[in-house]
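Following up on my earlier thread - several people asked me to post the actual chain instead of describing it. Fair enough. Here it is, all 258 residues.
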Amino acid sequence: MKRHQTASEDLLEFCRSREGWKRRLNEHAATVLAGQDRSVQDLIDTVVSRSRARGADGVTLTGSTARGRRTARSDVDFLVVGPRPALDDLTMEVDVRVLTAGKLMARLEGGEEYVQWALRFGCILHDRGIFREASRLVLNGRLWPDPERKRGHARTLVDLAARILESGDREAAEEAVRGGLTAVAHWILLSNRVFPLSRDELSDQILELGSSDLAAALHRSIHSGPDVDELAAALALAQHALELTPDRARSVALATAA
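Reply from S.P.:
Thanks for posting it. Predicted structure:
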């Protein structure tokens, strides 16, 4: 975990000079893209070229693809600052979040996690200066995502998962519980001043904090296809975790149900 944290801080440090920023982005992009399948590389090239053609100020590859931790459930995720590129003809699953430059800065200052993740751990593939400016804002302002904002989001997802589980739709419940566990893990990590990585890395991060039950439940939800009883037990862990106070969430034994 410390290695990943250091890498993100290095990325922010490089924004202090224009030359250092350009060198760091080129090196990072070359490393990340070299590790992708040809089909994924082609998709990334297409999204970046179409975004640039529409005048985008910046394009960042995010999520598990940027981290080299793709799973069978992974989309290819992007943050685009500028107009939305045309993507309807693409055959692979793509998730593109689009922001204006003003909204990017406002969300950073408002404590949104995703935009900071894109700067710290994303692979920046095109930048007219907006991502460097945003990184300088994070670095100089010592910005950190708001954990309580993430807890509110997690509570919404966990409540939804409980309703779906009660409906008897196991497949939908599995997806919903996985989403709720993921959000709870993000809240716990941010409360401990640990930046969440990609979904497939969260269980290891949570385990390092001492929360073995939650880590195991999250891992099973991603890789094992848990049955209804396992989903119910995982949901109980998530619900228990959300009842902890912020101070308890910063303790080691934070999400083991009583």
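Residues 1-6, 252-258 have pLDDT under 50 and may be disordered. That should answer part of your original question.
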